[in-house]
Amino acid sequence: MRLTFLGATREVTGSCFFLEACGKNILIDCGMEQGKDMFENQELPISAAYVDAVLLTHAHIDHSGKLPLLYNQGFRGRIHATGATCALCDIMLRDSAHIQMAEAEWRNRKGKRAGGKIYVPLYDMEDAMGTVRLFVPHEYNEKTKLYDGIEVRFTDVGHLLGSASIEVWITENGETKKIVFSGDIGNVNQPLINDPQYIKDADYVVMESTYGDRYHEAPPDYIKELADIIQETFDRGGNLVIPSFAIGRTQMLLYYIRKIKEEGLVKGHGNFKVYVDSPLAVEATNIYEKNIFGYLDRETMELINAGINPIKFPGLKTAITSDESKAINFIDEPKVIISAAGMCDAGRIRHHLKHNLWREDSTILFVGYQAEGSLGRIILDGASEVKLFGETIHVKARICQLKGVSGHADREGLLKWLRAFKKKPERVFVVHGDDRVTEMFTEYISKELGYNAYAPYSGTVVDLLRNVIVVEGKPIPVSRKEERATTVFDRLVEAGKRLMAVIQRNKGGANKDLARFTDQIHALCDKWDR
Fold first, then answer.
1. Dist CA 496 CA 270 (whole Å)
2. Residue 4 phi/psi, 5° resolution?
3. pLDDT digit string (tens) for 57-82?
4. What DSSP string describes 292-345?
5. Which CATH number, 3.30.930.10, 2.40.70.10, 3.60.15.10, 3.40.50.300, labels domain 2-215+407-471?
6. Tell me: the pLDDT tens digits for 374-406?
């Protein structure tokens, strides 16, 4: 019964934990790193083909984004998540593959002219589609037997539609241990979704600490503040451009804007237009409308029962095709443009920034976390110019932030979640926060609150039966090499590893079947052995 920490260790993104128990290999999350990284993550210590299952806390790319790479490398187990998370990942992983393939095409066109190396995406659409077929949906609060000796339950953690903390019970050698993976703990009083639900018991807790060093400001009147920003921008004759995460934050903005229009808070600009320029955001909005029972909060359900769509309103326009996206910037009237990606490192938002950053009459409004090193963070920190598509763009637009808007719990919310456990866990592992924050939060809950807490580095291995750290990870500075799916030959090597995994799983099979399998392998080898 061992737990290995691989990703989101003293960093905010790339969540990934490896659990070995009852003869099974299980990953909890398989996320992509985003923004600037400080430390090298250790590789999965086994071939992907030997991973039996993945438990997924929620759909955000920093928790799910490497699942298609795992598939590419031979994983064919099952991915367990809530029904809403399954639905969201269906679109998010396909979108991620599309962005990477488009980026590879653009880089290769540019690189070919300069005689550069071929740029290979981390994974492609085939990998994403294959991954989606492996998802198994679960309902909140239903305890499920995953394997002999292993049970799991998903509990609403209020971060995103379908987001969950995952409770895992492991019985080995007559002893049972319960591990709780917090996932991303949600902020309270968010529109549309429920507040976090609390868990009462655990032997071990792996908890996030994104905002473990700060308190959210007293929630302002978001609707009035957003209405004021729209009013001021439109009065100048400019556009309001909002880089927004396609899932969660976009739907929240639509909820607020519906209220603004309903109450007539923006004067003198008629039925102003709001453009959602993100196919992913449009699909996600449709999923929000379908996944209502058990996922949306009471206030939202009251609106729905009264025949009111909480995230639709007159003047809402969507852009699906690239031509529709381009056309937005040729419309002269002031407008709101909501586009992905939320940190501005990819996607259509970069085109809207190119067309609006230089305009003194326009406003760029940030409504979500901007990771260190991301383009969004660079702009928010006051850059006077940025590069977009090889062109230098001077920043003349008003740059502002809707403060207090966060899908993550602050320090108080994190402590409330932790204190809900009736008895202090044997150990609390603090993850999913930058190096300084995890260190500070761990020290506080250890020295001030009396928890046995530890902030692991990638590569840390824990014996859960004995509560002993077997291998202590080390802070290895990132070398900043590009992470790509390499070559077709490397895929062949991964296929060979998968073949070995399949052979191992057939141990004890019928002699007749094993003999036929052996003959097929020899035939394949005879064909390719040159």
1. 63
2. -115, 130
3. 999 999 999 999 999 999 999 999 99
4. -TTTB-HHHHHHHHTT--TT--TTEEE--SHHHHHHHTT--S--EEEES-TTSS
5. 3.60.15.10
6. 899 999 999 999 999 989 999 999 999 988 778
